[in-house]
């Protein structure tokens, strides 16, 4: 690994130190002879496009010039190389500023829902085929894809199938159309942002696409960890449209179904309960 990284960086590496990461990648702090440091991710997944898609997502988020992201330095099927960022615990003002910056990110828009390429949500392939209608995109490229994966994985029983069938008929009244397709992080839980030593928010590990901005905000509530000032800061800049509270469970159903596909039956009860509520 060291020799491959030295070829990619064109630098001599003095030290590779493992750092904590997620369930997919192994991560390292790389210190080079010239004093520069990098953050390097590697994985054992059978997904040669995983890191290229992550790099493209980070670059897309950077276009909005709203929230800091680590700009990719290089990638291959085995590695993603990013700048190393010194982190700290959030201090006063962090959460409100994070909400304000996310609101500005969501004002960066496209003409269609989706993205120019498919990518990944965790290690699950994520379909981003463009649609003019948000309702069509969310059903066909999000919920229906997860249902098909559940069927392939032997996890879709009659209760799941019937629940999804009933949900499809209710989607037009539940969903509505957003103001426009917003640039989304796509996987915005508490493990996918950092606080720098200067108290600035940084977004990492995206699953980027253009969609309803409420989908990002809903996921912040799925596992918790976001301070109330985050939401009030967001509302100052880009108030949510009427009925947003009623759509939180709907948008989080996508992630719960994905967790059921990724991690198995521990998420079955939560998926069924969400379907029942909807």
Structural description of this entry:
This protein has 278 residues and is an alpha+beta fold. Helix content is 42%, strand content 17%. The protein has helices spanning 2-9, 50-63, 94-106, 134-152, 158-175, 213-220, 228-237, 248-263, 268-277, and strands spanning 13-19, 25-32, 37-43, 74-75, 79-83, 119-121, 124-126, 182-184, 193-195, 201-203, 209-211. The strands form 4 sheets. A 5-stranded antiparallel beta sheet has the order 1-2-3-5-4. It starts with a helix and ends with a helix.
Features of this protein?
278 residues, alpha+beta, five-stranded antiparallel sheet, two-stranded antiparallel sheet, 9 helices
What's the short version?
It is built from nine helices and eleven strands. The protein has 278 residues and is an alpha+beta fold.
Sheet with most strands:
5 strands, antiparallel
Helix amount, in percent? Answer: 40-55%
Instruction: Give the neighbour order of strands across the main sheet.
Output: 1-2-3-5-4
- Using only C-alpha atoms, the radius of gyration works out to 19 Å
Task: Give the helix/strand class.
Answer: alpha+beta
How are the elements arranged and paired?
Blueprint: H1 2-9, E1 13-19, E2 25-32, E3 37-43, H2 50-63, E4 74-75, E5 79-83, H3 94-106, E6 119-121, E7 124-126, H4 134-152, H5 158-175, E8 182-184, E9 193-195, E10 201-203, E11 209-211, H6 213-220, H7 228-237, H8 248-263, H9 268-277
Antiparallel strand pairs: 1-2, 2-3, 3-5, 4-5, 6-7, 8-11, 9-10
Helix pairs in contact: 3-7, 4-5, 4-8, 5-9, 6-8, 8-9
């Amino acid at each position: 690994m060291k020799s491959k990284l030295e070829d990619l960086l064109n630098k001599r590496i003095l030290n590779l130190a493992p750092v904590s990461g997620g369930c997919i990648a192994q991560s390292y702090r790389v210190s080079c002879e010239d004093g520069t440091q990098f953050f390097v991710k590697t994985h054992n997944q059978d997904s040669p496009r995983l890191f290229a898609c992550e790099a493209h997502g980070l670059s897309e988020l950077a276009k909005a010039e709203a929230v800091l992201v680590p700009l990719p330095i290089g990638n291959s099927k085995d590695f993603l190389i990013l700048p190393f960022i010194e982190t700290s615990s959030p201090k006063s003002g962090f959460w409100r500023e994070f909400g304000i910056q996310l609101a500005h990110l969501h004002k960066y828009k496209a003409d269609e829902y989706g993205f120019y390429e498919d990518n990944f949500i965790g290690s699950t392939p994520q379909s981003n085929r463009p649609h003019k209608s948000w309702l069509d995109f969310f059903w066909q490229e999000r919920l229906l894809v997860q249902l098909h994966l559940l069927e392939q994985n032997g996890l879709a029983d009659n209760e799941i199938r019937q629940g999804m069938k009933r949900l499809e008929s209710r989607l037009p009244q539940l969903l509505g159309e957003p103001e426009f397709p917003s640039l989304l992080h796509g996987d915005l839980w508490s493990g996918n942002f950092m606080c720098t030593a200067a108290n600035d928010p940084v977004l990492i590990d995206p699953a980027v696409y253009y969609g309803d901005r409420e989908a990002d905000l809903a996921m912040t509530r799925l596992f918790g960890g976001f301070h109330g000032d985050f939401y009030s800061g967001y509302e100052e800049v880009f108030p949510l449209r009427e009925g947003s509270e009623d759509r939180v469970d709907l948008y989080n159903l996508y992630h719960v179904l994905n967790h059921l596909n990724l991690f198995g039956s521990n998420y079955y009860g939560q998926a069924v309960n969400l379907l029942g509520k909807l």
